[in-house]
Automatic annotation (TrEMBL):
The gene is hisD. PROSITE patterns: HISOL_DEHYDROGENASE (PS00611). NAD(+) binds at Y128, Q190, N213. It is an enzyme of class 1 (oxidoreductase). The keyword Chaperone does not apply. This is Histidinol dehydrogenase. Its EC number is 1.1.1.23.
Length: 432
């Protein structure tokens, strides 16, 4: 585990270097481009090839789609406790995200014209749900629920299968609960390519959503423009800002919770104004690590992706957080300090406040979507919301009175920009 003292010269550069290591290396970009090009040309044949190569699953195109009967069977197969958990999380997600549903509006501008906006659901959306070794059941709820609230007519889900071509029952049960039945047991770059380009079996979508590993995230970046993408939510990140009031065992547990995703590209930050607290947390991380099922992969993340940052003041902590733009930010500080930090930190994907609020609550059940920007993309992206599943269209209507006021402005701009036809298109209506 590495550490820096942010008060010392060169520390800002060290932090920048650490953050840059999250950028996708050229070899990943090249590999992704090759797979996407193959899917674009060979379609289903390429998708089958890469499913076998990367997931070990022998899938003919007719086996790509999960039958509705499999979804219903999975819903019956899971335990009553799991079913209650799915429903509890779903209820919170629905309640939270309904508040973000945008509404049409109309009014008059200063020239008397009627102006406004209307919002329409995107026609066909594709949701990527990580599966395989770690089936992210919660991602179904955190994406499909929002698409349903937005009213998207067609919702497609792609998720990888195991070697036998099976998808985790909990994941299928979540899809059944939300009401999504167009599901393909395809993952990885080939799934992003299939949704972007379309194949004989998987019709193309208009926009792709959902988190993924570095390869999936890079695939979304490369297909952007042909289709829309929600953001670039890649390998997980967490930053904890802590003072002496923080529980070291809680902080360590939360750091490990994000590290256990285990891709090797996760970023884990611990920021404190207390050298003693940093030492406590590092000790707790070492103590708790051995009891984890995925301890080996988690240890690799900690070795390469953990950074402890000693700050002199919380103003420095704000500077660090706003630079990193962490996916998840925990504030394990005194309540008054937490309030100040919430106001000052403007780039975090999601903020969890207080010792009793682990990131896992946000991951699974609090209500906001856990699909959040990573790799400093929080500087310009926000977490997933219902509006991301909708298109906004402005609506403008002038009449014979209001166009007279508008024409004078058009004439001035047409002259400045030397666009005669623009000016004439308004003037002819006034003259007539």
């Amino acid at each position: 585990m590495r550490s820096i003292d942010y008060s010392k010269p060169g520390a800002a550069g060290q932090l920048a270097d650490f953050c840059r290591s999250a950028l996708v290396p050229r070899e990943i970009s090249a590999a992704v481009a090759e797979i996407l090009a193959d899917v674009q040309v060979r379609g289903d044949v390429a998708v089958s090839h890469y499913a076998a190569k990367f997931d070990g699953a022998s899938l003919a195109p007719e086996a790509f789609r999960v039958a509705p009967t499999e979804l219903r069977a999975a819903a019956k197969q899971i335990s009553a406790g799991d079913r209650r958990a799915l429903k509890a999380a779903h209820a919170n997600i629905v309640a939270f995200n309904r508040r973000g549903l945008p509404a049409d509006w109309s009014g008059r501008n200063r020239q008397g014209a009627r102006v406004g906006e209307k919002f329409d659901p995107i026609r066909r959306v594709g949701l990527y749900v990580p599966g395989g070794e770690v089936p992210l059941v919660s991602t179904v709820l955190m994406t499909a629920t929002l698409a349903k609230i937005a009213g998207c007519p067609e919702i497609v889900v792609c998720t990888p299968s195991n070697r036998a071509g099976e998808v985790a029952p909990g994941l299928l049960a979540a899809l059944e609960l939300v009401g999504v039945d167009e599901v393909y047991r395809i993952g990885g770059v080939q799934a992003i390519g299939a949704m972007a380009y379309g194949t004989a079996t998987i019709p193309a979508v208009d926009k792709v959503f959902g988190p993924g590993n570095a390869y999936v995230c890079e695939a979304k970046r490369q297909v952007f423009g042909l289709v829309g993408v929600d953001s670039l939510p890649g390998p997980s990140e967490v930053m904890i800002i802590a003072d002496e009031t923080a529980r070291a065992d809680y902080a360590a547990a939360d750091l490990l919770a994000q590290a256990e995703h285990g891709s090797g590209r996760e970023k884990i930050y611990f920021v404190s104004n207390s050298t003693r607290q940093i030492a406590r947390v590092e000790h707790e991380v070492a103590q708790q690590l051995g009891s984890l099922t995925r301890s080996e992969k988690t240890a690799r993340v900690l070795e390469h992706g953990f950074l402890a940052i000693k700050v002199r003041t919380f103003a420095q902590a704000v500077e660090v957080a706003n630079y990193v733009a962490p996916e998840h930010l925990e504030l394990l500080v005194a309540p008054a300090e937490a309030t100040r930090l919430i106001g000052a930190i403007t780039t975090a994907g999601a903020i969890m406040v207080g010792n009793e609020t682990p990131t896992a609550l946000g991951d699974f059940t609090a209500g906001p979507s856990h699909v959040l920007p990573t790799a400093r993309a929080g500087r310009f992206f926000s977490g997933l919301r219902v509006a991301d599943f909708m298109r906004r269209t402005s609506v403008v209507r002038y009449d014979r009175t209001s166009i007279r006021a508008g024409e004078r402005v058009v004439a001035a701009f047409a002259a400045m920009e030397r666009l005669d036809a623009h000016g004439r298109s308004a003037r002819i209506r006034v003259e007539k």
